[in-house]
Amino acid sequence: MKKNRLAICDSEQEYAYRLMDALSRKADFPFEILTFTSAQKLYEGLRRQPVQILLVAGSDYSEEMQGLAERVILLWEGEEGSRTELPGINKYSGVVRILKKITETAEQDDSIGPFPKPDHPVHFLGFYTPIGRCLQTTLAFAAGQVLARNHRVLYLNFERFSGLESMLPGRFEADFGDLLYDLHKPPEAVLERLYRMAEPCKGLDVISPAFSAEDILCVGGGEWKRFFAILRESRYTYVVLDLADCVQDIFGILDECSRVYTIVRKEASETAKIGRYEEAVKQAGHEAVLQKTCRCILPVFARLPGDYSRLPGCELAQYAERMLLENGQGGI
């Protein structure tokens, strides 16, 4: 396997060596690490040993450094990062976040790699409720953004006519239906297509919902099982499934999840719907779904942003963070 080089440059010597030590402890980290505590030492060292990625403190950075590596990532303090188009991260973020930024940046360059196959489990978090207009999508999206602070997270929306694109910045070139159409291809080809399609929103990878309802309706239980088997080989740690009634074998999909989040309400009509749903789960032989279900009664939120890129920090996002912690999704 090709071993790439990464250079750390920070005149704060203790920080530079602590970061080197923390990254070196990652068994699957595919870089040899060089550490420098001044710009002069960096220039001298990289004349002899070129590197693929340079991780440099904002206070030590100069434009000339862009020629020293294929990719440059700034370690910034305060608002430094807003003054440059270079990728960057606050230097006092946890090592998991810094590692995530390095791998994200490296994967944008075909000349860097190959990377070892992820050996971590992929956790599916299902969001499903039989009641409507209950903020399920907003909660699922906010939970994904919370987890994405420290993990690679994918969000998938299974609704017929979601309209989610209007809540997101940026443009999508393809949608979930296009990805499902490729399920007959080898797993590596499906994952490659998925990675190209995914658009980031505050760290969360998002696939645009299917434009046509038929693209969701026609996928059978066996095809969903194949799809989830492929996702288990992906680079993601969490996959957030924002599910809907139109999906075939909905109980089988919920069985794939390590945790299911179901929004409930106290009104009699809504309680009756939940009761009927839970009875149907039992009759279908999927009692395990109910055992891993968290029933969520959402409080009244004073204000919700109209753009999902502005969800982090709002009341609902704070609720989502508490919910995840209480249900064993650690490392947030």
Question: What would you note in describing this structure?
Answer:
There is one protein chain. The protein is elongated. Helix 4 (136-147) packs across helix 12 and helix 8 (221-231) runs parallel beside helix 9. The protein is built from twelve helices and twelve strands. The longest helix is centred in the C-terminal third of the chain and has 16 residues, at 268-283. It has helices at 13-24, 39-48, 95-106, 136-147, 176-181, 187-197, 213-217, 221-231, 250-256, 268-283, 287-291, 315-326; strands at 4-9, 31-36, 51-57, 69-76, 88-90, 123-127, 153-157, 199-201, 204-206, 238-242, 259-263, 293-296. The chain folds into two domains: 4-106, Ntrc-like two-domain protein (Rossmann fold, 3-Layer(aba) Sandwich), CATH 3.40.50; 123-326, P-loop containing nucleotide triphosphate hydrolases (Rossmann fold), CATH 3.40.50. The protein has a seven-stranded mixed beta sheet with strand order 8-9-7-10-6-11-12, with helices on both faces. A five-stranded parallel beta sheet has the order 2-1-3-4-5, sandwiched between helices.
